[in-house]
Structure formats: C-alpha cells, structure tokens
Amino acid sequence: MPVHSLTILGGGNTAFAVAANLSLAGFEVTLCEIPSFRHAVEPILPSRQISLGGVAHRETARLHAVTTDFAEALARNDLVLLIVPAYAHKPFAEACAPHLRPGQVVVLTPGTLGSLEFARILRERGAAPGVILAETDTAPYVCRKTGPAEAHIWGVVSGLGLGVFPATQTERVRELVGELFPGTRAYPNVLACGLAAMNPVVHPAGVLLNAGRIERSRGEFCFYEEGVTPAVCQLIYAVDRERLAIARELGLQLPPVDEAFHAAGFGPKGDLWATINGSRMLTQLRAPGALETRWLTEDVPYGLAAWAALAEQLGLGAPTMRALVHLTSAALGIDLGKSARTMRDLGLSGLNKDGMLEYVQYGVGGTANGIPPERRLRGKSGPARRFPQTPRQTGWQDLRGLGGRRLACRARRRRAARVGPPPVVGLPFRPTLPDDSPVSICGAGARRGNAGKRFRPRRGGRWKRLCCPGRPMVDHSSREGTTVLPLPSQSG
Question: How many CB atoms lie within 10 A of CB 101?
Fold first, then answer.
C-alpha cells in the first residue's frame, strides 16, 4: 500500500531534516515532540514551516501538522518514524504505549537495538498487541539543525539498513520505508541491524583519542578529516573485530566497518581511512564542541556497553569495548554503566543464542513472555538454568555455559571452601575412612583453600568442615592407598 502520510516523533537535528525533506517530496508529515521538550518545536508551531538547505531539497517546507499531543499524532497515520537519541527511546515508548494500535509500524531511526527495548516497554505497559517495530542502522541523512526553524543536509545515505521486529514482517516494512528512503535494504533481524550501527564503532574511539584537541579548540576542526587518523582507525578496527565476533556467534554475516561505510554511500571503497578522507559529506562535519556530547553519552552506554553485555551473555569477551566504557566514564566523571542498556532492558535476559534468534524472528519467547526451558542459558551438561547476571551471585552456579572463565574459577573456589573436596578429586580411588571420623585433607586431593582443614564425611559424598584439632590427617597423594598422618600436638 503506497505511503501518502506519516508521523515523525522528535524535534532534533534529524527529525527536522527528515520532516522537511519528505514534506517537499510530497508526503503529508505530522511532527510530534514530547511535551517536556515542547521548546524544540515551539518556533514552528504557528507557521509549521522549516527552511531546508544542502544537497537535497533547498526551499522552505510546510508540514501538515506540528503538535505535542501523542493521541492526535498517532491517530493520523499507520507509519511512524521515531527520530530521537537512544536515551529518549524509553520516554517516547511510554508516551506511545496507550495510543498505538494493531498494525501500526514504528521505525526507530536509528535504533541500536532500541526496538527491543521499545517492545518490552509496550508489553509491560499493556499496549495493544500487533504493533510492528523496526529500526535502521543509521540516520538517513548527514544533517544538522542550523537554526530554530532551519536544517541543512550534507549528504543522503544511499543504502539505509533496516531490521524488523518480528522479522516475519520484514518485507512489508521494507517496502514502506523504501518509499521514503530509496535503496533501503533489509537485515535478517533487528539483532543484525543493531550490531550494524556504525556510530558506536567510530565515535567513542575518535572522540576519546581527540579529547585534548576537542577541549582546547571547542570543536573547531573537521572531526573525520583531521581527527580520524590511521592510529585512530586502528582502535576503531579493534572495536569492530569484537562487534563482528558477536555477529558470528549469532550466525550473522555483517560487513566490517570500512565496507559498511562504503555500502552506505559515505565514501569510496578502500580501508577506513581512505573511505573517510574521500567522503564529501563526512569531511565537512565539525567535531563536537565539548566531550560531553551524544557521541559519548549515547554511543557508549546504548551502543558499546549494550554490545559488551550481549557478548558476555553469549560467552564472548569484549575487552576493547569495556575499556572504552570505563575510559569514557573516567573522562566524563560519570558512571555510564548505570545508564547502559542491559539484557533485561532488551528482553533478552537469560536467553541463549537459539532463544534470542527465535525471539527476534517471531516476537515471542523473550524475558517478558517467559523463557522456554530449551532456550535458557545452560552449562555444558545438565539441565537448563537461569544464570545470575552479576558476579556476586555466581558462587552457587557453574558458569561454564556463559563462558565466564574468571567468574567460573571464582565460583569453584567459593564452592571448594564451603563444601570441601568431592569423593574423587582427580584420583582413581576413594579414601577408606572410619565411619563419621573427622579428617584433615592434604596432598594432591586437597582443593585450594582446604589444605589442613578438618572435615567429616556426609551423606551424598559431601564433606562437612569442622574445627576440631588433634585428629589424624589423610594424605590423598598416594595412588596405592590412604596414609593416616598424625597431627602435631597442640603443646608443640
């Protein structure tokens, strides 16, 4: 069905540029901002006009409507574009929940896995079922808001990527979005689209390595042309390798960062440095005027930190991403981990790889819907279990299924200190002991933290720790039998 009208939620740089350009292209556009940010659209409320410049349409656009009433804005159209920073996805989802109806399509532009958080909020708020969510991998334009009622477009993305939730609705949504942004291509699911976002790959590394220059010059230099040097590109590549490893673990094939920049139309084919320096649109962009910019406060907690959490739940490491999260927090003096998207926020907590893929394909089986036993995280053997998400809760679990080697070692040490060694500890025999006799463990059979401690055999092969000195000591180190050694006298 052809698209004639749509609603755009937001009032920032990209929202103004998209609203103006699509209006000039012949679409009826309703622009809606959240009431607490009414000041962003107040200059255009009386006239509904935005002056647009740049490489797209270059004239004044007149919008169909400008409002802060979500009920009115969402009732007008079946297609909704949410064009706000990632940290605004939650308040917009809460504002939209009472007014969305089955069959409506909401596209987060871009999303960075935000469509999964949006879906969880809609479920928790009791929104009508059947709402289709989607997200893009980047914004459709390289643009800025140049005045209260003005916007400028430096470049148009020719290969916008789209992921749909649930993925069974991908083709329908791609056709709708393709009418607005020609050349739109579909990813297999929203996980692939969220991992294909380039801003978290490039922005944090580039801003941190140019921190001194940004603060000294207040952003008066071309960020990509002057700031993304070959050494900065090496750090970007390190982040990208971890991103691609997450995608491979999920069975997804994503292009590396340099190929993705070229495919999106940012610049010529080549390595990242060559693509960026050959880009007309990117080389014109100025650096942020301060370190406290969306390139850090958005791309780190909602991009890198969320990807790192996903990697850790899949049993992978993401040391470079984690390091950038910590360094950014230290540089800004705020703990970005507290505002980061978690697996629970995305509705993925407790799901293994198969569970995640089934959830994004069909829209069922996520955290809010309950986790089927066969889709929960499991160890290498034994029944499926829900695993705790914090290191302090790991003492009672075998964390091999999470791949957390350090946490697993910590868990084993705590367990050994609590219950002692099992009947057989790497040896082909079980020591013969008098019934119910306290012993002390030494030699090869002693676990770390138990050497010299007194234990009593328990039913089921467990050992109870005692504090009674003066009993014999059992040496497990001999494979021929059990040697009872006297303890030194207390008087000595």
Answer: 12
60, 51 Cβ separation under 8 angstroms: yes
CATH code where residue 295 lies? 1.10.1040.10
DSSP state of 257: H
Domain assignment present for residue 281? The answer is yes
Tally of CB atoms within 10 A around 289: 13
Question: How far apart are alpha carbons 1 and 121 in whole angstroms?
Answer: 29
| Residues belonging to the chain | 492
CA dist., res. 418 & res. 406, Å (int) = 19
Same domain for 36 and 91, yes or no, is: yes
Q: Of the residues 131, 165, 188, which one is the last residue of a structural domain?
A: 188
Decide: 375 and 352 in contact? Cβ < 8 Å: yes
How distant, in Å, are the alpha carbons of 80, 126, 345 from that of 97? 13, 7, 16
Which residues partner with 61 through β-bridges? Answer: 50
| Helix runs in 165-288, H state only | 170-180, 190-195, 199-209, 211-217, 230-249, 257-263, 272-277
Domain that holds residue 269: 198-345
Q: Does residue 259 share a domain with residue 152?
A: no
* Residue-level pLDDT, tens digit, the chain, 492 residues: 678 899 999 999 999 999 999 999 999 999 999 999 999 999 999 999 999 999 888 899 999 999 999 999 999 899 999 999 999 999 999 999 999 999 999 999 999 999 999 999 999 999 999 999 999 999 999 899 999 999 999 889 888 999 999 999 999 999 999 999 999 999 999 999 999 999 999 999 999 999 999 999 998 898 888 889 999 999 999 999 999 999 999 999 999 998 988 887 777 888 888 888 888 778 777 888 999 999 999 999 999 999 999 999 999 989 999 999 999 999 999 999 888 999 999 999 989 999 999 999 998 765 545 555 555 555 433 333 333 343 333 333 333 344 455 555 565 666 555 554 444 333 333 444 444 444 444 443 444 444 444 444 455 544 444 444 444 444 444 434 444 444 444 444
Residue 412 forms part of a structural domain = yes
Q: Which two tokens stand for residue 486?
A: 């006297």
Three-state SS for 306-371 is: HHHHHHHHCCCCCHHHHHHHHHHHHHHCCCHHHHCCCCCCCCCCCECHHHHHHHHHHCCCCHHHCC
> What tokens appear for 316 in the block?
């992978």
